[in-house]
Design goal:
Blueprint: E1 3-4, E2 11-12, E3 16-18, H1 28-40, E4 45-47, H2 63-75, E5 82-87, H3 100-114, E6 119-124, H4 133-145, E7 149-155, H5 159-172, E8 179-181, H6 195-202, E9 206-207, H7 238-259, H8 263-272, E10 281-283, H9 287-298, H10 303-312
Parallel strand pairs: 3-4, 3-10, 4-5, 5-6, 6-7, 7-8, 8-9
Antiparallel strand pairs: 1-2
Helix pairs in contact: 1-9, 2-3, 3-4, 5-6, 7-10, 8-9
Length: 314
Amino acid sequence: MKRRLGSTDLSIAPLVLGGNVFGWSANRAASFAVLDAFVAGGGTMIDTADVYSAWAPGHVGGESETIIGEWLRRRGSHDGVMIATKVGMLPGEGGAKLAPARIAAACDASLRRLGVDTIDLYFAHQDDDDVPQADVLGAFSRLVEAGKVRVIGASNFHAARLKSAHDTALRLGLPSFHVLQPEYNLVSRNKFEGELQDYCIEHNIGVVPYYGLASGFLTGKYRTADDFGKSVRGGRMAPLLEGRGKAVLGVMDAIAEESGATLAQIALAWLAAQPGVTAPIASATSVEQIGELLGAITLELSRDQLERLTVAGV
């Protein structure tokens, strides 16, 4: 069931648990229950970031990492669980974004909150044109050499910058970004498909896409403008409905009838079947939601079903 994450020595289940909700829309008790259920169901990797959830009133960032760290301490072991976190969106000691001093300070802060000695996968959360890529990779290299980080990855990088970083790493003998975290789902495909996807496949860069459910759109929750009031995210759904969203939901509904799977499971199974993709990321605020999401791990869509979904989103 596990898949090797690109050319790294990490093997993970084909679903990654998103930690953006922990300490925000999921309180401590709910977060612990979700984490317990995910691991019990075969999940292996939890994805978070230092900036989660600085956007919430009264929050400063680090809330998600803190919850995960408390859960790991209660669990009594880091064994069997891999943690991915990120640097680059939360200002603080050492500067902003990907300044080398900021990377070093942010990593130490994440390690403290998580209560671990090593971060399994450490992402540059976003690109930083203001810092030479050699300096960024050099900062990550020092973390790897110190045993604070196992593998590094890039999130929200365009193809040209990912290529540039890879070439820089090879030229200078520095660690390379072996994992990419892009936005990618059935109704948002242009940021990954094409040059970026081809490059990841060519260089065996593992891909763990975020927004796999398009902020809930691909669960079928938002089918008309009247549904936008169902959550704070509803206002984002209008462009999806006006675009190919309705057509995609129509095909998903048909496949749900054929397979007995839910729309969320279908959306994630389609992602997991795409060339280059190791595992999609999805979040949950309840054990019931986790149960549904984990069903995507064993769902095998037929070639015809995959093709119908692909065509509907074009």
